[in-house]
Structures
1.
Amino acid sequence: MERDRIPEAVIRRLPKYYRYLSEQLRAGEERVSSSGMSRDMGLNASQIRRDLNCFGGFGQQGYGYNIEKLRGEIMRIMGIDARQRMVIIGAGNIGQALAGYGGFAREGFLAVGLFDTDSTVIGQRVSELVVRPVAELAAFLRRQPVQVGVICTPAAAAQETADRLVQGGVRGIWNFAPCDVQVKAGVAVENVHLNDSLFVLSYRLREDGSEG
Amino acid sequence: MERDRIPEAVIRRLPKYYRYLSEQLRAGEERVSSSGMSRDMGLNASQIRRDLNCFGGFGQQGYGYNIEKLRGEIMRIMGIDARQRMVIIGAGNIGQALAGYGGFAREGFLAVGLFDTDSTVIGQRVSELVVRPVAELAAFLRRQPVQVGVICTPAAAAQETADRLVQGGVRGIWNFAPCDVQVKAGVAVENVHLNDSLFVLSYRLREDGSEG
DNA sequence: TAGATTGTTAATCGATTAACAATC
DNA sequence: TAGATTGTTAATCGATTAACAATC
């Protein structure tokens, strides 16, 4: 069965569905309709039905969607039903925060290594991890498969870090450095550009002020 | 002069232009053409010309764009030519990292307050700031104008925090909590949903794997 | 069966890209 | 003037929304 390519816009909404369904499940709800989700999430009901239908007919006419089942399907589609191992490169503010944040482990993303080049932080303990020298990264990756590499270095070191990760077999890069990185085909990059996000907020501050 | 509304997609690209132009300026370049930017940034040249033209004709036929001037215009448009003051609510991993990160201050965004409800962290020094009790937030905001409120609390406290910030006159919310918050019209919200971002990466890991 | 709600098609909207006349 | 490159219009593409027949 050949599935159509999933539109980019739909993929970006999946985590939001997942979040909503998890909440509803926790609240003890059993089923939900597209109009109910529309009301709660502020999305158009047609869009919700269309989105969910990209992956197959999980709904039932006259009933709606079973929350537990739909949530399970979305987990499977996003690949968060399996455990993923992550290494974090750069033990500065952001790197340490991500290493210490329990929210990812709770969803199955486990940080197994934290690396830096700065000898003053190497050896320090951060949460469950001890900061290792980046020079050991290649050997580390040879010993154990790692799915996700998190770049938390300064911009100047980001590309080299990406290269090392890809060289070591990592196929997903989560990039927090304030620059873009180039990777070969088959490697996924997801950027978290905090400065960019802050600038967009800054733009909207003015926009709303002058319109209101 | 009535300006057309700027498309959402263009606004999200502005920080990327800014980043590119800053780099070029640092490298000593003076002018750039849309085709040069296209090559370097991986965007379509038509799109670049169209984007930049949303704000007025900064270019010159046969010459291109003056980097310093264009960068200045984009700064002005995004509102990052002026200083902005931020308060951070939640002194956990993320809140502390943002308070300590120098990259925002360098762009004119200054963290002036860090708040938490946990008495074990209140009073602690984080970078230049001392963690204050959230109970003092209202009084703090009365004493000095703050443009941006950064929510770094757990999901359960996010909405209440947003309400307190808006009540205190903050008109821009940078939300790092893993949930959405509701605010009245005229308040801008920019979300940084780290879990969502990680899930999208996770989806692409599978996608590329099965296609490659 | 009647009511509710999906899945899906058609219509609309917005964003991207190609093409080229205008102009520096 | 000739060459380069913008600004802008027209064509294409993709995403959203409305509408409704299918069906539980």
Note: Residues 33-35, 49-50, 52-53, 57, 59-65 of chain B lie near DNA strand D (CB under 10 Å from a C1').
2.
Amino acid sequence: MSKRVRVRFAPSPTGGLHLGGVRTVLYNYLFAKKHGGDFLVRIEDTDQSRYVPGAEEYIFDTLKWCGLEPDESVQHGGKAGPYRQSERKDKYREYAEQLVKDGYAYYAFDTPGELEKMRQDLKTEHHSSSQYDHTIRMKMKNSLTLAEGETEKLLAAGTKHVIRIKMPEQETVSFTDMIRGEVSFETSLVDDKVLLKADGMPTYHLAVVVDDHLMEISHAFRGEEWLPSAPVHILLWKYLFGLENMPQWAHFPLILGPTGKLSKRDGAKYGFPVFAMNWTDPKTGELTEGFKEKGFLPEAFINLLALLGWNDGTEQELFSKEELVEKFSMERVHSAGAKFDYEKAKWFNHEWIKKSGVQGLRFEVRSLLTKNGITVGDDNLLDNVIELVKDRCTLLPDFIQQSSFFFKTPETWDTESVKPKWNQDKKNFFVAYAEKMQSAGEWNVAALESSFKELAVEKNIKPGELQLPLRIMLVGGKFGPPVFHIAELLGKEESVRRINLSLPLLGI
RNA sequence: GGCCCGUUCGUCUAAGGGUUAGGACACCACCCUUUCACGGUGGUGAUACGAGUUCGAAUCUCGUACGGGCUACCA
């Protein structure tokens, strides 16, 4: 069994991609790369009523931002296409009919109204299940119950119908999940799932099996929410292509919000993003914020996602994509769901900002500042500023407050922080210090600091009491890196100018 | 309700029969710093419960409780 590793991410384009989705992509990608295999993306758009314009493009934009590009997809091409199920529509019917022919499925002509009635009746009977299963299928209108020749007649007349799988009455279906080990189900408890819908499109159950076969998928990974329908897929593999050709399965643990499976609502309610990037619902115009726009680095995003349900067994927590590819293993993926913790997510981002070199941050910081009306100029100053302030930035937008004042003279000064302790002596000090700066030969942190302290001693004022006023004059507020570092980068002219500009505002 | 999956500090997790049950986030204290952070040191804090197997169980088995998922002509 040395089949080439081929895995797939199979989203349905119905909206933004959330944390769980991206993590599924990530684990697929890591597994494929680790084993030198292929990672494909297949668009599962068999439900036309749920089609959302822009959603497919959004998925690819997200993968690109994350650096998890597929080897084969609608956008990347490949030999196993088309990669959009709606374009593969004609492939599915023959498999469904083959199943009918072999006695593993049947035609069903029940109308939605009849199904509804069946469910109502069963409910009032206070039976446990309201499923279309072996206990009731002989009471419904299908090719199992119709008189000889009746089915053919209906079919020939073009009657709306679906094809349902005929679940065995007494069988135990089991398979080995790479994460959970052996999992088994009693077929008598599973309903006769629809395989082919009345509109001729396959349901997920048929499509996933047929396409995984046609695309030669070796390992099928998906979220835990699919576990209950696995027996249907196992049976389909057995009937159609043989169990020996079936991919190996792994069902990933769910990513949980404060209450249950993480949802878009959780994000809005608790104030953290759940989508990878901003998503605007084309129908309602509602915007859901993304990690990207919130100020996360893709490296951090991937890192935090990888650790939500997996670890390498050591105490290492910071991994680059390359390290993840090297160290990832399905055996170390957890079976229990993981609750998402936004505080920890921010910690990852902070670590990655600190870890990142200036060149990796330059573009983002520049565009952020520009967007906020700051003219940045050449890379030289920008690079120095980034190097100086990045340790105090958790999210990218933190760079705005931490560095705007390097490029733009403050418009307002927080004089209230200084005024209560302000006096004539201090004012004299700054007049003198500005003059001293003006004539300074050396312009660096050490020189600035020592001349500041010397002058303070000379004027008999504690240097500590003068630092906050200096900061306010240069920065405008109580923030930013150490003052002398600020003055150094600001340069002589600008530093002196800001002192002279703000000094009168303090009065006396 | 039925079926399936799961259960170690508040959160993410390590420890696959023998450890004072380790680390990280968050929190608290102290140090550094008379901006705010970063950083450093220390601290609070967990094996859901009950049986069993075993000389020995967080680790294996069973039961209970709790949590989650699924139960559509949606994926």
Note: Chain A has 20 helices and 13 strands.
